Batch of 3 targets.
Target 1
Amino acid sequence: MRTMNIFLNIATAMLLMSCGGTEDIPTGGGSDKPDTPVVPVTPTVEEVTSDISLLLSTDKCAYMPGEEVKFSVKGAVPSDARVRYRQGFDIVADAALSDRSWTWKTPTKDFTGYMAEIYQNVGEKKVKVLGTIAVDVSSDWTMFPRYGFVATFSSDKTDAVVESEMEWLNRCHINGVQFQDWHLSHHWPCPIDKDGNLMAEFKDIANRTNCTSVIKRYIDVQHSLGMKSIFYNLAFGVLKDAYDDGVKEEWNLYKQPNRNERDKHGLPDSWKSDIYLVNPANAEWQQYIGDRNEEVYQNFDFDGYQIDQLGYRGTLYDYDGNQVVLPQGYTSFINAMKERHPDKRLIMNAVSSYGTKEIASTGKVDFCYNEVWDSEKRYVDLYNIIRENDRNSDNSFKTVFAAYMDYNRDRCDFNIPGILLTDAVMMSLGGQHLELGDHMLCREYFPYTGVRMSGDLKTAIEHYYDFQVAFQNLLRGGGKEVSMKVSSSQAVINQWPPVAHSVSSFAREYGNMNVVHLINFTNSNAESWRDADGKEQTPIVRSKLPITIESAKKVKRVWCASPDEHAGSVQELVFTQDGSSVAFTLPTLKYWTMIVLEY
């Protein structure tokens, strides 16, 4: 371990202090001031170039305040390389880099994102960025959830394979992992026989062979990386043999009040069974599945339960012919599961927003989880869902989208423009995309692997997730939505919502700064985030784009950052302010650039 020395320009520091100093970026929680001093910024704007040739990694997905981060780097590190750590624009530490591995003790401020940059000084106020990686300092994942998944548990998943997959998720700072189709059956999830013995191997719903040791290995590796491990199951699903396992007919859901037809979710004939539905509000069912979950927790070190549903089912009835309102049943079910295991985490799916108000208003889920389909396929729908979740949870819960890309495609690579435009919109609005796992997600059947991730997309995704973490306080830290007029003599810029073949802007206010996002739809019809057929095209890249933003406040500094340029590194911009107009030149706009005006 080497001690990071911070050299401060005392005269400049005193000058800044006399002018009010710098203000902290909001965190959404924790103490108000970092324990590490911020390096004063000189008036001269630093010129940034990049040659991203170094691959950085950290030992965990997130850190407790004051915890040490262990970094490592691959690639040829120049002898004059340095490493610095930024919170937004401000540099909190800077030191020479003399080894391929080193540590950094994080500041004690909770719920804060940082960007670590390896760079060279290549001239007077000129730096070349060689590699970046983000650091999340958060004591609880619910403030900034980044959800991933695993869906295959066969003997092919050796320890080396499991570790490699989780290394990739850790590189993208995934802090929670959903285990899909991991269980024996929906009404008997834990793979134990009738004598209570844990099975070494068993068949899942699709008659795939799952290995208990692989499930346990995933959990162990995830916990070593600071991730939460969450098991999946329906709130109300049983298989055809459920009566043999203690499920009662009186718990069933029916399509008519006379019990003529049970409600079910049909599955292929080659699978174990269709899934029959029971009433999630039935107290006996809640006791039964609570007992089954107890078996899960006794045999596997899961951190919580991902509760699933199936969306709107039409009018349903219980065994006695009473109409059942499923969203009310979801409230009852969540409350019962939390009461049964109060120390375990809960997440519940809102399929096409069905039951979203009832789920969020319990206050007992870790975040809002929305599986979005064609009824919510517009980019503006993503915005509306996040705002509705904010209202339903009194701004307590963040939003994670289960959103399946390239849905109509098979035996091909994901279409990069579609993925990055969708991620740019979700992240800039404050959401997160459930997409990364033991492969990249493209269907509601999580084990499906027919669409692949190219090397170029993998690199881009690393930069996007670094960006989301490094600037999480400006992306997911609350703030107030504001209307700001943004214009350019060389591009059509409209305020949100998106308009075809133009640049869309969206702005928030955080204390003494405004954050303006530009999303580039110049080569897009800006209609659907789904890109089901992989037709979305790369935007028309704008370089040296003149920008004017209307702002009546006196601007102190303008800076920008983009996951598409310099691996997310900050660039300060020269600006002029004439009355209420702030003008500057934006270096590049490819998919998404974030502009920050500090006052």
Note: The two ends are 38 Å apart (CA to CA).
Target 2
Amino acid sequence: MAVNAIRQDEEQKEVLKKDTLVRLYKYLLYFKKELTVVAVIMAVTLTINMISPLILERAVNVHVAAGDIAGLVRLGVASVCLFLIFAAGTRARMLLMSRLSNQVLVKIREELYAHIQTLSFHFFDSRPTGKVLARLIGDVNSLKDLLSDSVTKLIPDFLTVVGVAAIMLVKNAYLAMAALLTLPILAAGMFFIQSKAHKLWQTFRKKNSNLNAFVHEDLSGIRIVQSFAAEEETRKDFYMLADEQRNAFRDAVRYADGFGPVVEITWGLGGFLLYFIGIRVLGVGTVEIGTFLAFSTYLSMFWSPIRNLASFYNKLITNLSAAERVFDILDTPPEIADKEGAGELPQLQGEVEFSHVTFAYEDAPEKMILEDVNFTVRPGETIALVGPTGAGKTTIVNLIGRFYEVTKGDILLDGHSIRDVSIQSLRSQMGIMTQDNFLFSGTIRDNIRYGRLDATDEEIEAAAKAVNAHEFIMELEKGYDTEISERGSRLSIGQRQLLAFARTMVSDPRILILDEATSSIDTHTERLVQQGIERLLKGRTSFVIAHRLSTIRKADRIFVIDQGNILEEGSHDELMRKKGAYYQLYESQFQ
């Protein structure tokens, strides 16, 4: 299957910026009450801001011109009161919007995490975990300022620009047109910059994702790195990826920093044209001093939000690629999902039937992993799967749990097609012990309970005793309450695998899958575990994958898998008498 390597930039489908923005802003609608409060506060502060130059105009043209000191004082007091209301409202609006944007981020991250959990093994097989983490954490965090500024800055600044332009046109159309003549220059400059910057920011986020993936993988495998004294090689790789990230960031910033100068230049030209036309063209006496002062203030009020809008637009171009990457994951459809009207799988007896099952990965349909596989397993029967690496043994058990979808054919449990029942009801009746003895950070008790979250302490201890893990657990300082890390520090490989085995057993499954369950256990411990396995297999349909053929001699039937097919099947004694593929495997192993 195609795999996205650490140093390989991720592919990303092109979408319209407008569609991404609309989709992002829809999340704000989940918090309509909070938005309403912010909107009311914003309307009050915006109104106060818009009438401030009119107060200045009245103060000069009316009260100063007439020598009305009392009126000027009253106007000054009113202005101070309005300023205090404006300051308090602006502060409240910023705090409320900051809180609201955090709530939106939490919702997006929860939705993204929940969706990622529905994706199939193929999704995780085809990309490094670090790249998924980069989207879940880094890219989502990048949206905070974009969401917050959209309401606290974009809307009021946009309304300010529109309102100021309207007032200027009403007060004096000639002066207004003079001040706005440079807007086409601004629009052309911003369009050019954003068309270049957006692509560069997309590249930066891909390089950042590569670096995250490398660091995650390197730290996860730090024992291997140190064991092979490969610190220098990995350090070089890190420096190379960090340089690529830095260069991508530098290239993007070079264009993004052009927004400021474009705004400043057009602002300066607009101010020059205002005074030039007002003084040289219209004449000094044509415009009252108060009106000129009001226009000067309005000009500042017009270009200041324009500068803010340009800054926001820069931030938008910078972070829009992060939103695109988040939605790219959300738009990835689960390859394995409940079909419409899927029912609940009833309590299983344990019959498993493969009916003409063929399987190939979607991105390599020409390479068949399994081809026309047929067999029926009776309830309570133990089936051992043996064969060379890559023969298809693990694929068979993964298909039973519907971790991949069969390409052709069907799998039935007690006569029910696994496609017709919900995934949750299917997997809740299965216990799977894989080669990966992964443990979660927490106590030993919590790790075993992960197999069934409502398991009692007595059931947890019973499962541990069944696989002979209870004795070494009780030797630890805090017993079942001993804290362990995800790597199972303080525990041997065998002990970690015993805990993983107990975790599987506590789920009391109807169908049990053991994929190399005893591969990391020493011979002495293996004998103890085998005793527990024999007790726990009773009454359950079980599939056991093992390379050590001595561990599966008591299986009811043994399937010899090779090249995606069942070459032989039968009990150990029957297959040994045939002297076929199983006999050769057994003899070669013990020779």
Note: The chain has a mean pLDDT of 80.
Target 3
Amino acid sequence: MLKRTKIQFKISVLLIVLLAVAMAMNVAWSRYSQTRQAEIEMLEKTQILNQQMHAVWNFIDINQKRIDTDANGEYNFKNIYCALVGKGVAKLFMKNTDYVIRYVSFQPRYSSAYPDSFESAALTQFGEDMESDEYYGITEFEGRDVFRYVSPILVQEGCLECHGEPAGEIDATGHAKEGLRVGEIAGASSIIMPIDIYMEGIGSNIAQQSIIFFIVLAASIAVVIFAISLLVTRPLRRMETAFERMEIDHFDTEFSDAWSSSEILDLQKKFHLMAKRLQALYDNLEDEVADRTRRLVEANEVLDEQRANLEHANALLQAESLYKSDFLAMMSHEFRTPLTSILAYADILERSDTSLSDKEQDAIDEVRENGIVLLTMVNNILEAARVDAGKLELTYEIVDMVDLIATVEGAILPLAERRNIRFATSVDPAVPLIRADWESLRRIVENLASNAVKFTQRGGEASISITNDPQSRGWIAISVSDTGIGIKEEDIPSVFEKFTQVDKSAYRRFSGSGIGLAVVKILTEAHGGTVEVISEPKQGSTFIVRIPMDRPERRNSP
């Protein structure tokens, strides 16, 4: 039942909450407004009573001389004065009512005239603000709520005889004068009015208004709930029944809710249209499913055929890559053997015959230089083929960089001298012994140094410098610099790619396979290091290789 009246229940709860809030606001406003009205009425009553009491004072003050003059016209003080008469009248008034009337002052002649806290606040206000002529409010007095009204008593001409100057002089009543002047505050009249009857009336009125307000709101809520049930809930229930029928493949939906709202009727029409379309789709669903299944089977067959073709092509590519790697390795090995023999015989020829002419010596140097270049190219191709075949393995051992640089210098220096290039090497004494693959590290430095000499014009400079890397502790930096042709900025990203050369024309000045820098990068990264290049065209280049001093797994990356 709760499920079928969910909207109705929520709206009912909402309306009940609104009823409670409206009731609370109505009670609060009624209490405030009626209390305010009662306070205005009590203020008017106390003002009238206060004026009446002041009238008594004024009457006595005006007729004071007449009262104190006997039949013979002689002054005879009869101990009847304004304060005494005012207090007497107040006592008579209080005798038959619940009112309390007091006359108070900060300098009272009687102990009963001392002000309480409320009256003290009023006297203080009158003293600070001479324009203020009343002080009132609802407060507590002797354990019950009352309305209190205080007004100032100002010194008049007739008051000076008893309360004027000089201060301290004994007046006719036997009291010392206060030394007051006309217009000053002599004290205050205080009226205390009970408010029980007002509060009872307010409570009764609020109760009656609340009952009427509750009945009206309850009736309104009942009407709203009935309207929602008739216009919304019942049509939605019929639509829910139609949905349940659609779950068991019954798409006939007819609605006859004449009392429904236009929004519900539009929704029912659209629902009916949707049911018709679903019926049409359901009628053709089996044929469409069969057709889609057939197409899916055909697509899977095509995919299987394409997958087989891709696997065959991949196998062919792998085989061709393996053939290429094997061919390059075989040819590099076959080239390296005769090249080594050529270099060896050139050395033997040079050592055995000391009577060589300059031309013969130049020829031998030319053979040696080109043989070294060609042997370096073959070694690089062999190294690249080994990497492609996944057979690159590093043998870590203790490496002294001074010895390694000396070996590279012995191979490169003859080439530099032949080209009239100043070639220098330096190893920082702070560089310690490191653990690395000696042959791979030598090939890295030799390839960079060979390129530096090859791409530097005659009379230029090339150098190798090895220091501790200032950027990362536990790393060394190998810098190879030259004053050669340099590299354009747009060509720098591709210099480490295989078979890539900056000058790709058929008439380029510098020969080479374009694989040396690729091998440098491969071997550097195999050590866990990095390589970068800084270059400007026609200004030269600097290649910086950074590698760890120990195995990659034994140190932290920079």
Note: The first strand starts at residue 100 and ends at 104.
